[in-house]
Amino acid sequence: MKRFDTSLYFITDSTNYEEDEFLRRVEASLQGGVTILQIREKNKGTRAYIDLAEKVHALTRRYGVPLIIDDRVDVALAVDAEGVHLGAEDMTVAAARKILGEDKIIGATAKTVPWAMDEAAQGADYLGVGAIYPTTTKVKTVLTSTDTLRKICGAVSIPVNAIGGLNRDNIDVLAGIPVAGICAVSAIMKAEDPKKAAEELKARAEELGLIR
Ligand code: TZP
Ligand code: MG
User: Fold this and answer.
1) How much is the pLDDT for 212?
2) Which of 22, 47, 88, 206 is deepest in the core (most CB within 10 A)?
3) Residues with beta carbon inside 6 Å of ligand 1?
4) Which residues is 86 bridged to in the sheet?
């Protein structure tokens, strides 16, 4: 049975970190309570992506947290990750579902209501919607308004997460929108103390009634 909780969704980025420090930060985030973790590597070759994903998977397994691989269905299969996240330039959700079967988690990016409905119809398990705020993590990203985010939440029955520039000081903009969770890269990855950052982001999201 595929069960997952997107309430505190951490996306990693190894850029600018030695591997040991990167893995130390990933483990700290897990200690801080992230509920699902995506490895996102845009500049690695296939072997290096698989190698790092295996190391991250050893950690996520220890904490009982599902590992999602960004972009690459083949890497997800190679490391027996729990799922994959697909955007507009990746394999379609329908194609990935044929390869991965029903037990793997398939997430998709969506920025408009019709796009969200299409991904859900193809069998996506959750959506990531944004960027809500400008971000330096993703190049050339278009913003999605909180109004569109709210409409997407009403249009699909799968969990919808907000993403993009989110941190504990600005997620109040999501109050009252029925998101399933918060996605963050920098707020946790680049924090002085990633464990504390994860704990504080979760506490703030709970305080605002965004997650439980
Ligand atoms: N998709 C939309 S915004 C984004 C992705 C992957 C990056 C979010 O990173 P950060 O550092 O939390 O702004
Ligand atoms: Mg992608």
Assistant:
1) 92
2) 22
3) 130-131, 135, 137-138, 141, 163-166, 184-187
4) 108
Amino acid at the residue 165 = G
**66 contacts 37 by C-beta, under 8 angstroms:** yes
Paired strand residues for 127 = 108, 160
Neighbouring-strand partners of residue 169: none
pTM (2 d.p.): 0.98
Mutation probe of ligand 1 site: the residue of 13, 109, 135, 141 with most atoms within 8 A of C-beta: 135
Categorize the per-residue pLDDT at 140 as very low, low, confident or very high, splitting at 50, 70 and 90.
confident
**Alpha carbon nearest to ligand 1 atom 3, residue:** 164
* pLDDT tens profile 70-80: 999 999 999 99
